[in-house]
Amino acid sequence: MLNEIYEDTEEHMQKSIEALKRDFSTLRTGKVSTNILDHIRVDYYGNPTPLNQVANVLAVDATTISITPWEKHMVSQIEKAIQSANIGVNPNSDGDSVKLFFPPMTMEQREEIAKQAKAMAEKAKVAVRNIRKESNRDIKELEKAKEVSEDEGKRAHDRIQKITDSFIAKVDDILAKKQADILKV
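Below the sequence we write its predicted structure tokens.
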């Protein structure tokens, strides 16, 4: 029973780490990434559809993204979706494709994005701590039902805390790497 709690705890905490990595992929670093467009939805025959499912999205160089729709009439829809997403650049269209030209980031912009990364990491830490809280509650219920002894319960709480500490350290490590990447000129 306790082993199931340990496994569930680690599994859920790992999902929090993966969610943090997905969140971080939407942040802009010195080199532009197509992930910055992941949350954009385009009106495709009345359905909000992810941009990468209606067009080829490529990072041409460190500051340019090229979007080539599979159907030419989608160019205007893509332009509208990008403008409404407010990602900090205006789309440029030549009728066949849309190009996004990202200006080099200022130090102030880098620091602001680093703050956003820190906020995302804090959110992940809160999620990890909430998982710890749920696991500890499950252990207490086992103690109350006399399925584990008080000593086993104490050891289980200690193990859950060690698992939590390791995942908090992972979050801090991932944040440190991301901030270094963001602040690197």
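The chain is about 60% helix and 15% strand.
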